[in-house]
Design goal:
single chain, about 475 residues, alpha+beta, six-stranded mixed beta sheet, five-stranded antiparallel beta sheet, 12 helices, globular, DUF1996 domain-containing protein, signal, DUF1996
Amino acid sequence: MAFHRRKSTIWLTAAAAAMAVVAGGATVVAISSSDGAALADGADKSQFVDITKVKPNVKKPKEQQGATKGTFTVDCGRNENQHFNPDNFIAQPGVRNGAQHLHDYVGNLSTNADSNNKSLQKAGTTCKNGDKSAYFWPVVRINDGEEGEEAEQQQPPKKDDKAQQDKDKADKAAARLECPDVASLLPEDVPNAAQAEIDKELANIEKVTDEAEKRLEQVKAQDVNNIIVGPTREKRAAILNRMMLAFSRQGKQAPDLNPAAACTVKEAGQASKADNGAENNDEAQAEGTENKKNQNNKEENANNELEGNEGEIQRPEVVDLTFRGSPVGKVVAMPKFLRVLYGDAKAGQNGPKNARDSWTCTGFEDKVLLNKYPICPQGSKVKRIHDFPSCWDGKNIDSANHRDHIVFPDQNGKCKNGFKAVPQLRISLTYNIPREIQQQGRYAVDSFPEEEHNPLTDHDDFANVMSQQIMNRLVNCVNTGKKCKE
């Protein structure tokens, strides 16, 4: 359902409207009912269902001996600073309005179309523990049915991030240091007696690397190897040796951390695999590249409205970011700058292969809906639950389709051969949407215009920018059964 409220913003062509009818979608401009009658300014109530009439359908893998039951929750707020934009630096790097729908952001303060590893690392964060990771999902809106300026004034103001955009573009064009991840090379069972020392040395790794990155901006290209790369390798090697000795002193076989000593420099304009993402692969093209030439001219207005995505933005009442363990064993650290996708923003066009059950109500978490919005009983609230894939290939931080490098475990909770279990991120979003709004079918998630707010398209994105020591604490909490909150 497209939340259009002003005739001046009607963009649907006859062909697009016909496509919406074929797809079973509905628009506020003209919605086809089952008998062919046009419903003006209505909502498609067929996309809504009473959660109390849904049978329990959530099946959890049986926990095996050695299951990791710890959790690590990060407090990054509820997007109180109103960080919105219609970009997606993972699926559409460098493309303004590449998502064509608005995202809520928590965590990294700089996230936009031009974000890359360097800009993300340099930015601030909304997370209380200093986690600089980027967490973002499409906003939910209420169609209030009002017209004109009064309705527009109810929208939160658009945050002016032009200075940040210019800064990130400059970072992307500049030379940068790329160093191997260390936390992901550590074994699953770091001895408790060695944790403090390991954490200290991981902080030293971060310090040495950050200092080298800052110096890189002041060094001529011909001097980079002698002044930056060589000394940084030596400092990192010394730290890694101390870490390996920490294992040996506890009677444990030391992991081989030597491969993480050497860093490389990406010259100005030379993009890494993670920065480029997969601009040319089929799935990335399906994420909106067919409109690429026009997207940069279709930015959101001052009220954060986009063509096909209008209405009052609903900030989540509760944002819960929790990393969990595996039902079959211990987990290893995620590598820094790992990109992870949940769901498929183009599921209506691509099919449901990558779509995930997301929609439920508080108190009814044993019932999760795939292609319907829930109507919750009195006292219950609309909730989105996003469980990310958690089986990593052990090598890559991204892949051509942004999915092959990290996949879901099987129905028993096991990772396929060659993949390692990493902490599973669960993002839970709870909304205080009035029950009458739910019953009237007047709330929906932002989507690509052609998806017509299909609940099937709910999705979420995550890029890990945690420091090595935060990730080490996370893995330790999960693997030792603790309930940690930071």
